[in-house]
## 1
Amino acid sequence: MGSKVVIFWFRRDLRLEDNAGLHYALKTGGPVLPLFVYDRNILDGLDNKADRRVEFIQAALVHLQQRLVQAGSSLEVRDGRPVEVFEQLLFELEIAEVWTNGDYEPYARERDEAVKKLLAEKGIPFHSLKDQVVFEKNEVVKDDGDPYTIYTPYSRRWLANLDDRHLAPFPVACYIKNFVQRRPVDVPSLEALGFARTGGPFPRNVMGAGVLGGYTNIRDQPAVIGTSRMGVHLRFGTVSIRDLARRARAESATYLRELIWRDFFQMILWHFPAVGKGRAFKPVYDLIRWRNNEQEFGKWCEGKTGYPLVDAGMRELNATGFMHNRARMVAASFLTKHLLIDWRWGEAYFAEKLLDFDLAANNGNWQWAAGCGCDAAPYFRVFNPVLQAQRFDPEGLYVRMWVPELGRGAYPKPIVEHEMARRRALEVYGAAVKGGRG
Ligand code: FAD
């Protein structure tokens, strides 16, 4: 690498197709060095050394590397703290500019600011593009410029603002010769990173045929694979949000609405970063006197609450890293309302287990379920887990799949009686809200 290089830094966009930042980096004429950094600030915080997200990233990098090698190039993979990695790169290389795609999480924003500052000291520009959402930051706001905090009016404005331009792909293949030409360098193995392989399968990054056509009718049935299973691919950018949104726009308004929820929570995290650091979106709910019974929390985690839909969801999560959205909603409501356990405990448990874990979506949905988040309705909604199971799993297929001992002596009795728990939740929530006014 003799001449000055343009660095493209992959993060949540592990693909070569339709990648905004990569498109612009290559368009400079290059030579473009494709970089990935295993971020020790994140990896060292993971207690589970068989973390499937790390395994997913490693597999995605191997795939990227195959494509780059075909193009005569090679991925540069570093293992360290991003600022230190860039200090080292500045020492080793002549860098013309750095391109990347934006990330809206509080840690990522601080990290990018620090890298940008370091580069600026050397007069090197750092360009960050919008890639992982359709609309970001202030692109969908109220007439007075304030951010929306309720989904429905946000989604209306989102749809009104949308035109073909927002979903146009960013081609990469036509600039492929602008990657640095060099001999392949090995992508580190999981073992070299201090992680272990589990070998479990990952969902494919191709949506099943017929998913969009049937989505409206069957997406709420946990027994059926009626949703797209694109969560993990959207999380790590192994699919393009524009591609999915284009297809949704043509085939399923319901699916498009789910993608808008995703943009919505990213926008909330951007405008209200404190939610990602443990604060309730509506501060008065930080006054709730949670019961936080550790034994009950343990039973919820294990899927032994005696409520089959909650237990099936938790066992699906523990076994596969996925939980159907309906089960997620019921399990989250049960933890916070029936057991009066702090939503932050549940949020952290999901963060550890979900393959598609995403701070904005996880936090936003947990706060929504707990009643302290972006929801037009007050805290009164308490899902009845028995009625939810009757409605969405009427033949009991889902619960029997995950709770095979159901109906036999081995299955626990309900940990708490529904009607008593509902009334207790309303009292405790009511007291917090009243106290907050006081
Ligand atoms: P599909 O139904 O096929 O939806 C397509 C995509 O739309 C999803 O992959 C996702 O990116 C987006 N989406 C759908 N529903 C939502 C939603 N309610 N909020 C935000 N985006 C949505 N989703 C995550 O991606 N990461 C999380 O960490 C996460 N945590 C959750 C925690 C709780 C308590 C709840 C109730 C929901 C959570 N969700 C989360 C939202 C939703 O459950 C998942 O996105 C969905 O189940 C993923 O499966 P899918 O890809 O088959 O979804």
Note: The first helix runs from residue 20 to 27.
## 2
Amino acid sequence: MNTEDVRNIVVLTGAGVSAESGLATFRGPDGLWEGHRVEDVCTPHAFRRDPALVHSFYDARRAKLGTVAPNTAHEALARLDAEWPGGLLLVTQNVDDLHERAGSRRLLHMHGELTRGWCLGCGQRFGWAGPMGEDASCPSCGKAGRVRPDIVWFGEMPYGMEKIDEALQRCDLFVSIGTSGAVYPAAGFVQTARYCGASTLEINLEPSLGSTMFNETRIGRAGELVPEWVDEVLQSAHSSPISR
Ligand code: OAD
């Protein structure tokens, strides 16, 4: 892939980018996500039906964040953020905080964040550490029992769609890393980017569901292939620095 004419880049990441840090991906071979069916824990309906189950599921995932660290793929993407002179937007579907802990700044969490809460009483969103549980009090209005994880569940609108769409329309290169391509709208970003004239690259352990839509697919571990790709793209920026 010729990266010499690239100015604006959009990178999309999924669970595969955090797999080598020790966080489980969603679609394991048994179709379960850490022992749960997705619809039992990842929908507003599930939260209304059994808030204790949903809270304990996300509390466990939040606690797990303290036991893991960014891997070489997160670190390489943070280096890209620091050194890429053109436009860049890193869109992650992940609710972990490994991209920001690695140092990424031009970052958008389209499916929300484990480290944030949302009060259904007053509508405020805020940072959250530790367990949340059913009786959590809102730091803004003080009411207990109305706080939920600030995670986008199935049937809810992902965050930042306007900004993402704008970046996709402007980008010259779209790169998808560690995502199965099973969940829309993220699975459709490659089509928007291509339609608007961008080159497209997939980096994944196996071909994703949308693999044929990419100009190029690199199969392997993100921890190995992402640093290689970042080196490549930064090299091209350093060798032809004008006009970015
Ligand atoms: P998935 O679990 O569906 O897919 C993870 C992908 O990463 C798979 O294609 C794996 O082959 C690949 N993979 C695993 N290890 C890898 C590695 N070391 N290097 C590179 N690739 C690797 O996860 P997502 O596509 O992120 O949404 O799932 C999308 C959304 O579905 C999630 O954000 C979540 C879920 O339901 C919400 O919670 C709203």
Note: The longest strand covers residues 112-119.
